[in-house]
Amino acid sequence: MTSVTNKDANIERHFHNVECLYIAAQRESLERGGPMTSKPMINATKRRSTSRILRLLAIIFATAMIAAACTGGAVDQTAEGNVDTDSSDSGDSGDSGDSGDSDDSGDSGDSDDEEVDLAQGGETFEFQVQTGVPASSVYHAEIVEWGERLNRMSGGRLQAEVVPSGAVVGALEILDAVDTEIVPVGMAWSNYWTGKNPTAALFSNPPVGSTGLDQSSSLAWMYDGGGLDLYQRLYTEEIGVNVKPLPVCPMGPDPFGWFAEPITSVADVQGLPFRSPPGLPGLTFQELGVDAIAMPGGDIVPSAQSGIIEGAEWISPADDRALGLSDVWDNYYLQGLHQSTDIGELLFNLDWWDALPADLQEMVQIATQATIVDCQNVSITVNADAVAEYQEQGINIFNTPPEFYDAFIDAWETVATDLAAEDPFFAEVRESQQAYADRVMPFRLTITELYQEIGETFYPEKVGENP
Question: Which secondary structure element, helix H or strand E, spans residue 100, and what is its range?
Fold first, then answer.
């Protein structure tokens, strides 16, 4: 009887509201029906139109209220009925039916919570991400934060476990591991896959920015110049893996590197066993006459201690410090032409990616772009701090000798020209980069010169000495 009484009361109350609205509409119509103005037909038409609109609104309101009372009454009555039931319980504690109503009320509350959870989320995706750097790396920490950001953005629907290089596979095995879904997501650098296709490095850290692009304009080429479409073609068509790439963690320019003795000319590095990145930077070092040797970061210090290499580059001042390179060598050269741009990548198994709902895919892309900004910010801060610590430690901080610029650019042009002749896709990507550089770099260089001039006015003494 309580349910019926509540519903009837709701309907009666809604009808009363409708009646009041209708009376108000009639009164509004009469009040507007005063003396005729100089335009009687127009005013009469307006009055009739206004009256019709108000009556129509009254009918719509009535329909909505009656529907709410009949169909939604059960929801209203549940909240109100709980109070009635509790009140009844206090007056008649021996009524077993009331006790049952109380249990039903509790079930209703649980059901509401479940509906809220489903409305917020749905399926949960727990997945593993392996990075291509040690846990001590600044950029491993950035991917950990990327995973935590996804968790927050998705309300717990995306839960990433981020593990460092070697936790599941080696750094140079990440692409194959993502392709076969040993790990559904990986973080690395596309130049790691130069052995599969040399074009890969053009999307990460080509020497001298491939065609003179800087790091920001390289990202702009990806997002605004057609680079992302070419990037996807690289993996699905040219390399033939089931992978979706997204750029992440720009961290360049990388320093030239660490040496046991100061270097003053190109001749000083020719024949020198030197840890170099794989791919196009390594090929360019070799063209320059360096004995370039690719190896993961974790192998650098042991290789130096055993005499396999006599110099090395890694990522950045902060990451080099974390890896312990300043404990091995004393001479550090800042400007690295081999990776003047350095952009990481997140790799997603395509089947795993396609299984994500559209809203979660969008969250992943937004979180990845946010991490690009995070990496740009943190790179400025931690690398400046690391160089200051090197100076306090007594490390020799040098500028790269000027003759390296022309020599390295010439070596790169030789490598790039040969590869473009052999591989039409390499040629297509580099032509796209060249077209974008022609479009934006004259303006960009003019504008960024402003910052250089202003900065040098405030800070005439810069870091680094000429060797």
Answer: helix 96-120
For the chain, give the longest Cα–Cα distance.
107
Give mean pLDDT, residues 293-306. Answer: 93
Omega within 30 of 0 (cis) for the link into 35: no
212: left (phi over 0), alpha (psi -120 to 50) or beta: left
Nearest to 164 by CA among 150, 181, 179, 183: 183
Of 336, 254, 353, the closest CA to residue 290 belongs to 336
CB 249 within 8 A of CB 343: yes
Residue 271, pLDDT score: 96
For the ranges 71-80, 147-156, 165-174, the lowest mean pLDDT is seen at 71-80
Percent of residues, the chain, with pLDDT higher than 90:
69
For range 430-439, the mean pLDDT: 98
Q: Catalogue the E-assigned strands of 181-271.
A: 185-188, 243-250, 257-259
Per the listing, tokens 């660490």 go with: 258
- Reported for 85-94, long-range contacts at CB under 8 A and 24+ positions apart, including other chains, are 85/2
pLDDT digits (tens, 9 = 90+) for 12-70: 444 444 444 444 444 444 444 443 333 333 343 444 444 454 454 444 544 444 444 44
HSE, CB side, 13 Å, CA atoms: give it for residue 315.
Answer: 31
Q: Report pTM.
A: 0.72
Helices (H) and strands (E) in the chain, counts: 16, 11
Mean pLDDT of the chain: 81
Q: How far is CA 181 from CA 169, 171, 185, 442, in A?
A: 12, 15, 8, 44
Rounded distance, CA 375 to CA 373, Å?
A: 5
Contacts (Cβ under 8 Å, ≥6 apart) of 66: 11, 14, 15
Q: Is 143 helix (H, G, I), strand (E, B) or coil?
A: helix
pLDDT in tens, 269-297: 999 999 998 889 999 999 999 999 999 88
End-to-end CA distance of the chain: 96
Query: Which string of b and e fits 143-177 if b means at least 16 CB within 10 Å?
Result: bbbbbebbeebbeebbebebbbbbebbebbbbbeb
* pLDDT score for 66: 42
The Cα–Cα gap between 373 and 387 comes to 22
Q: How far is CA 10 from CA 3, 15, 57, 60, in A?
A: 11, 9, 20, 17
d(CA 342, CA 357): 31
